[in-house]
Sequence to fold (394 residues):
Amino acid sequence: MSVEKKTALPPRIYLSPPHMSPAERELLLEAFDSNWIAPLGPHVEAFEREFAEKVGVKYAVALASGTSALHLALLILGIKPGDDVATSTLTFVATANAIRYVGANPVFIDSQANSWNLDPELLAIELHEASQRGRPIKAVLAVDILGQCADYDAIQQLCKQYQIPLIEDAAESLGATYQGKPAGGFGEIGCFSFNGNKIITTSSGGMLVTAKKEWADQARFLATQARDPFPHYEHSVVGYNYRMSNLLAAIGRGQLSVLDERVHRRQENYRFYQETIGTLPGIVLAPELPAGRSTHWLSCITVDPEQFGATREDIRLALERENIESRPVWKPMHMQPVYSSFRTRGGAVAERLFVDGLCLPSGSNLTTADLNRIVEVIQSVGETACVSSQPKSS
Fold:
């Protein structure tokens, strides 16, 4: 009796894996050998200084996650239970979750078709109508989607007009610029993530940045269980265990030193996709605002099934069969069961991006062979669809 042999799958290509170098290992071992293991320590302080300098903001506070940075930002800016906060509907759930942590209500704003970020025109309508109703929006939490800054000229002007604070969720945009200025400094407070799939990672971790020392001091206070300055443990307000460990900060310092190189590699990935699959009928790469410079943290495409002959899901499944990870663009928050009851302004653009959009492998450690393998699968899906659509001869 013959036994059918299983064909071994080729090596897995991940969507956005960590990319480490010897520098991180050296700094991590140094931190380990110094016995600074618990939260805080010399690498945390150094990471904060170096990060603030890199993004052009005066103060930085290293935290346990990007979500904790968003949570603290809302608390520091005085957002209270029952307040309404305008934010992007096309985002990862952490953005909306942080708003709910403080008891506030997210008001979801649709995306611009030309950037996929929060639409300032829809935001202007929402701010006006909310003010007319006597229930004004109390803050704007704008998200930089997939490595590209939002349209901050328009958003900042609106926040100034309505005298409300702006928080920048820059979790996905470290290294990006808008009008020549680095991501993270466009709001009163900016928030970054160093999750394992980000451009640089500390395994887990985040950073809060601000131009105001009192806000940075307040963030550090709240993030260390809000311990009052007594020799014993004294607490007058509720605090959080949100500070970054010295070990993770050591990794972050090594990663930060190669940020420009990592960004450059991801931009090269985008250009490769643009020059190959970007020429296929029905395939369009995510757009880039002329005023900005995206990191292309994730290179994404939209697929018109009528032109391409196959759907986004057909491509995703074909890639998965070849052991290549890809993922649909964020499912909009207003479509999520947990957030479906909250107010939404627009939504059609984000809904279309979810149906037709696909995030492709974008890691800074992708090889040319990896990229060719990805592109060949996508091209083959299109070719198969083209053959299938040919009329059969009688």
Notes: The longest strand covers residues 59-63.
